[in-house]
Fold these 3 entries.
Entry 1:
Amino acid sequence: MVVLVRNPVHAVLFLVLAFFTSAGIWILLEAEFLAIVLVLVYVGAVMVLFLFVVMMLDFNLTPLRAGFVRYLPAGALVAAIVLIEMTLVVGPKHFGMDNIAAPIRHAADYSNTRELGSILYTIYVYPFEIAAVILLLAIVAAIALTMRKRPQTKYQNPAQQVMIRREDRIRVVKMQAEKKHRDE
C-alpha cells in the first residue's frame, strides 16, 4: 500500500503500519529489544520526520504519476525477476510450515539484548563501525545537499561580529547639561 496509494501522507502512514507489523514479528521471534528499537527509532523519529517533510513540501504529483503507466511493464518485469530469484535462492522447501523447528526455550535470566550486544561488539564490531561511518557520511551529505543560499534570507557573519570595535557602533556626543525650569 505504501507504493500503490496515491496520497503521500497515507503512504507514510502505511509505512508506519508496516513498521509496527515488523515490530510484532520481532516480538514473536523473542527479540523484544529490536522490536522496541524499531518502534522508537523508526516510528517515533524517522516516520514523524517523513510525515512532516511530506506535509510541508506540498508535492505536485501529476508529473510523478504521468510516467507510471509508461514504466509499468519494466517494473513488472523487474518484480517478476526478483520473485524468480528469491524462489530459486530460498527454494520451495523452505516455504512450508513443516520445516519450522520447535522454539528454543531460554532460562529466566536470559537477555537477548546482552546476547545481541556481545555479538555486535565482538564478532561484528568492524562492520558495525563501518555502517556507523556510512550513516554519518549520509547525514553530512544530506545536509550539504539541502543547504543552499537564498537571496532573501539574512545571514550573520560571526567573524565580523567578533572583530567589531566600539567606535564603529557608538558615537559619543557631548552636550551641555540642561537647566531645570522653576515651574517643575
Note: The CA atoms of residues 73 and 79 lie 10 Å apart.
Entry 2:
Amino acid sequence: MIPFTGTPQAWNELIASLPIAHLLQTWEWSQVKAKYGWEAMPFVWSGRQTVVSHPRLAESSQPMAAAMVLKRRFPVGGFAKRMCVLYVPKGPLMDWNDTALCQRVLGDMQVFAKRQGAIFVKADPDVALGTGIPGTEAVVEINAGQEIRFELIRRGWKFSQDQIQFRNTVLIDLTPSEDELLARMKQKTRYNLRLAQKKGVTVRLGKVDDLPQLYRMYAETAVRDGFIIRGEDYYQTVWRTFASPALVTRFSSTPFHEPLIAEVNGQPVAAISLFYFAGQAIYLFGMSRDNHREKMPNHLLQWEAMRRAKELGCKIYNLWGAPNKFDESDDLWGVFRFKQGLGGTVLRTIGAWDFTPNPLLYKLYTQTLPKVMDVMRARGKVKTRQNLGA
C-alpha cells in the first residue's frame, strides 16, 4: 500500500486503466470531498514496494490496484482525539478475481485502519453479484461476486448498515446504433420521447451561467418528491470542479460534467447532470419542474443524454440507482420503472462493507448515526424549503 505522489492527471490515467474504474475514485471527486471535511489519501499497489509518482513505470512496478481513501476526523479530545472513519467510495479498483491481489489489498487496508485509529473503513466497489432482476428469466448470477463476499466475511468485514451509494444500478450499452438503442426501449418510452419532440420540447447543453438555475430546479424537485439534498454551495462545488473543458472531444481519463437542459418555449422545465469518465457516462442528478410535465421532457432528456454520451465515445451509460428490493415496497420503484423503459440492464453489486478494528466503538457509532442523520434530514428539508421561499 504505497502513497501516490504524482499529478492529478496521472492519478486519473492510472485508475482509468484499472478494472471497474469509477468517477468517485477520481482526483476531482476527492477534492470536492476535501472541501467538506474529508482528507484525501491516494494509494496504489504495485509489483514492488516503492512510492509511485506516475503510472507509466517499468512492468515490474506497474500499479495493479488503487484506492482513493477519504478520512474524516472527529473533533474530540482525550484518548479519542485520533478517532476517524475511512471511506473508499466505489473502490478499491483492481481485478477482484485475482485472489492474491484481493487478499493483499484487503489485508493492507485492515492494517491501515488500525494504524489510523479508525472506527471503521468502508469500501463499496462495483463488484458484480449478478445482472437482471431476481426471479426473472433474464437474471444471471455471478459466482465470483459471491466468493468475494465470502472472503470479506472470512476477514471480519461486515455488510454495512450505512449504504452511502446505491448498491444496484441500471446500465445501458451504448455500442449499438441509435436505431438499435431505440428498439431496445419499451414501446411506451419511445412514444413519450417522440411526444416530447412533437410538443416542442428541445434539449441543449447547459453553461456555467445555468448552474444557479440548475440548483433551484433540483431543490424544487427535492421538495416535491420528498428527498434530501445538500445546500447550493455543495453542488456548485461539484459542478465547477468537474467543469467541462473548453473543447470537448473523446476523453478517457479526464473526468468532466455537462448539464443537459430541456426547454419549452425557451423556458427550462427539466435537466440532468451528466458526468463522464473512463468511457462511462453517469446520470448523477436529475431535476424537473411541475410545468409542462405532460410533455414528457425527461424522456427526451435521457435519449439526448444517450446520444451525447455515444458521441463522446462512451460505451456505457450508468443511470445511477436501482432498488435493493425489486418490488413496489422500495422507494426507488417508480424511478426504476422509468429507467427500465430506457432499455438498460440491472447490475447488482456486493454493496458497502465495513471493517472495524474496534467493535465497541463501531457499535456505538452505528447506533448513534441513524439518530443524527434523522435530525440532519429534517433540518435539510426545512432549509431547502426556506431557500425556495416555500
Note: DSSP finds eleven helices and 16 strands in the chain.
Entry 3:
Amino acid sequence: MLASESSARRYALDPDVRLMLEVRGGNAAAFEELVARYQSRLVTFFRHLLGSREQSEDLAQEVFLRVYRARETYQPGAKFSTWLYKIANHVAANAIRDRSRRPEFTLQTRDSGPMGARPLDLMLQASSGQMPSRQLDKAEVREFVRMAIEALSERQRMAVLLCKFEGMTYAEISEIMEISLQAVKSLLSRARENLREVMQPYFEHGSIPAWEEANDDKL
C-alpha cells in the first residue's frame, strides 16, 4: 500500500494522470478530454505500424475501450502516456497476430503519394544505386522516410515510433514493450542500421537529410 501511495504521489503532477483519476471517479468529461488528446496520435501511431488507416481508427477505439473498462481499477504507476501505449502495444500485437493467421492477407505497398506509385520500389532502386540522383522536396523526403520505417520489422518499427514520434525514453519503451533496456537499445540500433542501409545513397549525394532530421519535421 505504501509503495502504491508513493507511486500515486509521484505521478500526480501528470495532468493526464489527474484526468484518468477523474475518469476513475466517474467523470465522463475527463474521459472525453483524454480521447481528444490522444486519438489522433494513436491513429497515426497504428497507421505507421500497420499501414491501414481504417484499421488504425478501429484499433485506437479498441485502446480507449480498454482504458474505459479499466477505469475502476486504475492505479497511477506510470505516466498516463506510458500506460496508454502499453495498452496500445498489446492491441497492436493482437492485430499483427490475427493478420498473420489470415492466409489470404498479402502486404501491399501504397498506390500513390508524393513519390508516385509504389514508393517502396523506388526506395529499393535507390538502395541499389539504380535511381538517378536528384534533390527531393520535403513531401518526398517525408514519404521516403515513412516508407523506410515501414520496411522495418514490426518490433523495430514499434521502438522507432515510440522513440522518435512519441518522444518516449528508453525506460518508458522498455515498460511499454515489456522488454529490457538492453533489448530496447538493440532494437533501435538495428533499426538505425537498416534505415541507413536503405537510405545511404541519398546520404552520399546530399539529396536527403539523415532520417533523424527528417523525422524532426514531424512526419
Note: The chain has two domains: 2-100, 119-215.
